[in-house]
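My current task is to audit a protein record that another person submitted. I have pasted the whole thing underneath without changing anything:
***
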Amino acid sequence: GVDERRSKDSILEIVESYLVSKDIRLRKAAEKKLWALDLHFKVGSNVNKIDIDSNKAKYGDRVPKPFRGYNDQFVGYLRLESWKNTFTYANKSNLYQSQLDMKYVRSGNKLEKGKTIYKEEDDDLIYYNKYTYNHPKFILKPYIDTTLNSELYSGKGTHPINLAVSAGLTRKFSEMLNLVVNVGFSADRNYLTSVNGMGFSSKINFGINYPKNKFLTKDISFNSEIRMQYKPLERYDNEFALQNRNDFTIQIWRRFDLTIHINSYMYRNSKINKLATGMVYDFTLNYSMDWKL
């Protein structure tokens, strides 16, 4: 005789169960995710070269902090950076974006004579929020954003805080270059000096990613940000400021990458009737970590 024993599930039932579970997984994967969170952290150290307008002292606190108090020289530094931590939430035509940037830098200036001097250089704490009415039929999309600037460490004394608000129109021109342009009105207040300002502002961001290959473990990236602001202070007086930040990152090995920073500024005040300029460029070796949710 032959003992035929039926298994708990037939082959047909197993295949059917697999196809049903696969369909459920595919449906979940196709669902549009409403939110995304990106976190980054880098530890870097290297040297950089600073070229500064020799008459920048005329402008006092108006000149951006990284460019104050320096002559042309080489500078070594240690950088702890958690930059471009972003949270985005999209629901129908409403797009919310938040970004938290933190940078803690200590530099050592090698003088011609004497000891190396270590000092604060460029601590940053920037919290940025932007709301965009992202209607698909609108070429120019309305936006409003707020930027809160402070410092991670400012030593003794009052902690510097600056709040800026702008509103206008934004447009994304190219997916390949990730080119985004914002143009609008702006207002800001410096809570340390109690100075208010109003004017026009524009911000241009673009970036390029080159795909990884057998030599590189991550994409090569280039990002640039250009900020321009015009403030009519009072009658027959106005100021114009332009800042440019460029980052070019090359992956070296696993979590190690080399970043080339080129940052510059240009400032003009009609009272002083002189253009102030400055530039910092450096090569930084980083150990980086990234998390995406």
